[in-house]
Amino acid sequence: MALIAFLQAQNCSNYVGSWRHPSSMTDFLSASYFTRIAKTLEDAAFDMAFFDDRLAMPDVYGQSHELALRHGIRSVKMDPTPILMAMAAATTHLGLGATYSTTYYEPFHVARLFATLDLMTGGRVAWNIVTSLNDSEATNFGRTGHLEHDLRYDRADEFLEIVRRMWTSWDADALVLDKETGVFADPDKVRRTTFSGKFFDVDGAFTVPRSRQGHPVLLQAGSSGRGMAFAGRWADVVFTAYSSREAGEKQYQAVKQAVADAGRDPAHVVVAPAINVITGETPELARRNFELTDALSRPEDSLALLCEVLNVDLSTRPYDEPFTDAELAAMSWQGLRDRVIQLSGTANPCVRDFVEHSGRGSLPKGDSTMVGTPQQIADQLEQWFGSCCDGFVLSASSVPGTYEDFARLVVPELRRRGLVRDSYTGSTLRENLGLPAPAEASREAAA
Predict the structure, then answer these.
(1) pTM of the prediction?
(2) N or C: which end of the chain has fewer CB within 10 A?
(3) How many structural domains does the chain have?
């Protein structure tokens, strides 16, 4: 059972109310805040922690950042990669991932950054691939608007093709380092990366040798039809969200089928849904912890976050006015839109439906929010494991409280059942996830 922690380089977790939780720390602008989390996760033998990211403050609601700042709605967003390195220095086995956008960065930059991170951590790094989704991100990078949904994935396909070619352009034994002969590297074992497409034209030699795990693990969260096809082609780990165990079983099979359709082995891709776990030593303690946590959410949190991910200003829209088909088609995050349509039972949901069923700004309703004793939580995870997932992504409702509670209470129970390891068995992230080394690129594929 893969265990992955969902992190943010900001003032709160993905649950905005977390910063108001009594057990949340407020020193999030320090390295020690993140290294404490890293040590907790490594003690529990988590496979990985990865950082979600957006490239703008939530300022679509009312076309202003006032609400985000006043209520701490993800209003701090630091670059996750320096934080990743601080966490790597405090650990020896924990895998670490960061989000970087294929829309606002260039392939060489991302390839070099993550290849270097992977070398500096001994092969423990993952790249969470996103295409970005709103106009605020675009204007931060000097653009007038974001690309249309499918075009973002078309660009991302070319981006990944180039990055993979760069990462595999050095053979594992390309470095010679023979001081007597003066030969540093074998030129025949380092190939130029040449690519010409709709979005990119690249011709050059990559500058970073191969890491111990071959290249960084690729993480992606595509849930729309186009996004799932993208994940099927590229992802080593697919991060997803299930509204129920039954829906998860169908989605799990769909993701595995997308991998097979891309000509890859479904057994070599880890599918991990997000879960929210609130636990306590007794049912009463767990219930009280849930009530405390659930009460931290506010409607303005949901509205600000919905505007951000849908790229629609809802500040003046009537709460119960259904969206038209055209308005729904224009929304940036199609996977979230489809989930709200499914859960609300209406083809044309309104703002109220999105607030109540999206899980944005509140604890998600349904099976993915698990409340109970360690034994009850382990029961639910065991029921899900294998039938609809290969592991889990733990979201936090308090930081570091959620991670500490899960490590202290739930992990020992999972270990007693033989569902998670007692200690790390591999030296790289790819090994600990049970993923094979990436295949060597042929000279023809990289030329």
Answers:
(1) 0.92
(2) C
(3) 1
